[in-house]
Model the fold of this input.
Amino acid sequence: MGTRQRKEDRAVSRQAEERYLEQTLDVVKDNLTNYGHEVSRMQDDIDEMLAHYHDNDTEVLTILNNTVTMHEHMKRALIRNEKALTKPYFGRIIFHDEALDKEESIYIGRGGIAKDTTHWMVVDWRAPVANAYYENGLGKCSYEAPGGKQIRIDLELKRTYEIESGKLLDYFDSEVIANDDLLTKYLAKNKQAVLSEIVATIQKEQNEIIRKSPYHNIIVQGVAGSGKTTVAMHRISYILYNYEERFKPDDFYIVGSNRILLNYITGVLPDLDVYGIRQMTMEQLFVRLLYEDWDDKKYRIKTTDAGRRYGKGGKREADTGGKREVIDNGRRDESVKGSSIWFRDLEAYCRELEWNAISRQSVYLNPKQFVEGIRDGKAGVFDESGGADPDMADLICLMNREAVERYIRENPMVSVQSKINMLNTRLRGKVKEEFLKRSIRYTEAERKAILKAYRGHYGGKTWKQSIFELYQDFLRRQTAKGYDVNVPDEAFDVYDLAALAYLYKRVKETEVISEAHHIVIDEAQDFGMMAYLVLKFCIYRCTYTIMGDVSQNIHFGYGLNDWEELKILMLADSMDSFGILKKSYRNTVEISDFATNILHHGKFSVYPVEPIIRHGSPVTVRRLADRQTMIREAADICIKWKNSGSRLETIAVVCRDREEAAAAAGELSAYVEVMESDPEKMQFGSGIMVLPVEYTKGLEFDAVLILDPTREKYPVDDGHAKLLYVAATRALHELCVIHTGNLTGLIADPMPDKHVAREAGELREPGITRGKPDIGNHADSRHRMRELSSTAGADSDRRRKKVSIVRNQVTDERAAEKKADAGTRAAAGREHGGMSYTLQSVNTSALNRKPEKTKQESTIQFGDMPLTEKLRPAGHGKIDLAVKWVVKQQDGLYLHSRYGVLRLSPIGSAIVRVTFAKGGQILDGINDRIAVHSVDKRWMYKESGSTVDLMTDELLVQVDKGTGAIRYMTRDKKLLLAEQSRECRQLESAADGRFRTWLYLDWPKKETVYGMGAGDAAGLNLRKTARYISHIGSNEKEDFELPFILSDQGYGIVLAADSPVLSCDIPAYGTYLYAESERQMDFYFITGKRQNTIMNAYAYLCGKL
Done:
């Protein structure tokens, strides 16, 4: 009753919401008036102080500095409130604080809005309590307060608002923040409008990264469009808000791949209440670390050769007599300079340099060499040793060789020059210690002579040799080893600069300068390990946020193709973390599919992309007669986009390189207004930008036109697949490709065979109808099984072949151009709206070859009782099946846990394939007794706070996120079967690298379950007993039947197992299905209201209809 009363009183109606909005806007208007007066008053005070300020008046200077600081803060508060006039908040939570036994209602906005010092109308999104809005579902949960204390709450309402120009348009109550409908609505807006909604639409996986502790490193793998740059900017804003005592704006560096990206970030940060952050490219950061040794007038920065026209090795495709060949231009491949191998060589070079530069001999003092006296009538200090070899007993050891060598070895982070200075200081100290010990022995003159003699023994105070000369010496040595690299004179790329920065730090540095305390690196995959190893060495007292996508490594041999080396370097602490952003919020489904197909032409593994379901226009690919016609067409397309309304404000024409972009910009400007074409000066904004593809990294546009992607410019290889993928994934709403010559094979060629199965189209399921279940007498079932078994011989050849689907390729270019003119064409020769398909038979007998039967297996008959030792499930450690993350792919829904990966693949509306693999990889392949290899496309899934639901027209498969257990239900939520919640799956090692598998089930007492026999074998009641249900021993033919159980509750299970399978339902051992030796757990769940419905589905699945 209490909860119901609270819900009535807490003002959740539309009228109440409109009243609160009006009250909030009144407070904002009052704040604007007050802040405006304060800003004006402070500016007058500053002007007056400046007019009367004198250099020697320290008191006025202090007051002036304080007033200027307060003035800046007040101006920012004024700006925050000005922005709040249009939309003061975007979210609200209502919860019951269990500790205080108090209900709270909190509105959340881009900035806090206070009525007075104690009453907040709106809480800042960065505040700890706001985390409950982003992170938690409804029900009991908690959020972390300052100091790490967990505040337990019962979250009762989560609401998101649509407010424009101070008017409440609508609101949405949702289990998780920004449900798909609302998110899709936001994403459909233009780029500039989407930016204003970012804070309101932060997703749970993004929020987790934003709020990670800044005291530890994090690497984030985020697919294209997952919001990596956005998350990085919000993370900085969050850290500055919550850790203001430790982190100031000048403690941050933002490192980006190009100036356009950094200029874009500069424009967005003030909207997040972030000012004064230093931003630079990686090249500029390394130049900064060279300090006084870099001379802008003498040296210059150049781009790496990775941006060259034909990529790695200077290779390109050419048409030679109708045959495509790769021509090597003979250019140097300097990609080794970006590798960790190169860094290790540089380390070794410096160690050798250090070993040779620092004297390691023991240092002795011979008192006989420093004797005050008179010689030839002159007083002084003279050598009285006579030049003879001294007696070791007469010598005093000042510095021991072993100690010197140990000091050199044990201080790798100290520069050579600092070690020299330290050793000189230590030697001077040792001399003075000797004076103290034997103060009577040495006269004042002798002391001065001794100090002078040992001064600078290990070297001078500064390093004399240029680090540029050292680097050239290192490169010459590398060339002598066989590396074909250039020795630069005045122009240096990022890896040259990294090496120079390392040499400066390792050899020359004498004063350690404090740099950043936290470095954020965006587009991290574009930089090789050489850059990171140098960065970690040069700035080691800081933490890192590293964002990237290895599928977008456009720098070919230089950048990162996986994260493994960087993880080892950066994630050494147990609190460091690796995050994955798998959802793409940028592209429409059509653009995402087009881009993914490009990526699949590469020979590398990719992180799966899970696009938000937002449909748009088909991707169009058009061929034009010549360049002039193409440029005119490009201009017409851009004009059409610009005039289509406010949705398409930012437009990019993407070219292969800078030279082509400059030429295209000049040609297009004759027909349409084009923005600044120099990438180093360009500012991101509304209008038409003509860019080389490498400068589009980290950016997104409302519409993108890819200009002339021919085979010569984009040959079919890994590097160019990633490059073209980057170009395609920049588009939010519209993507068009126009070309004159031979279209790149990355678009025109069919997908490689290895991706055919995943991109397969549909095989229509036969008409499986539902009716009333009737399983009481299973004689009909045995008869039906015999009928199906009798077809095995005729169908065996067909069932041993895998049915896959590939797209027909249209070779008639004139027909393809016709489709393009109709506006329905998507890729060269491919139609988006209605793809044509053909069936191909692919022999997979080698892939799915059965293991050899053991003698014991060959004697096992269907219905045999297993030995007692077989019934005891294996002992094991903790099995953690809690769902950590979910990925939707075209072959099913993947649910990852610490223990393994679960895949749910709908085969039809009434059949779901369930596959579970221990570890992190589902193995490819399908049992050769299963004839259906397609995955139904007509399914969807929903993720809530506690469950993941997969839905077809007839089935609801629900996975508990806490336990990983599956519940199979009809669409009206009638329970068919449940796995045991405490422990639902177990895999333990068997012979030959295979697994013994246990599937633990929860069969109600009144349910009857049958194991279906093959041929003349009778079915078995499997309740309260343990029996083998496999047919390996009972049928010596190759084509034995797969184990199949049938329930009177309206479902069946087909186990895709080649080894012996048993069913156990004995209380002492538990209820489970067990397979002796499998690569992974694999079975098919079938539902139907009648027995014949399920049997027909079984027949369809096994290719017997």
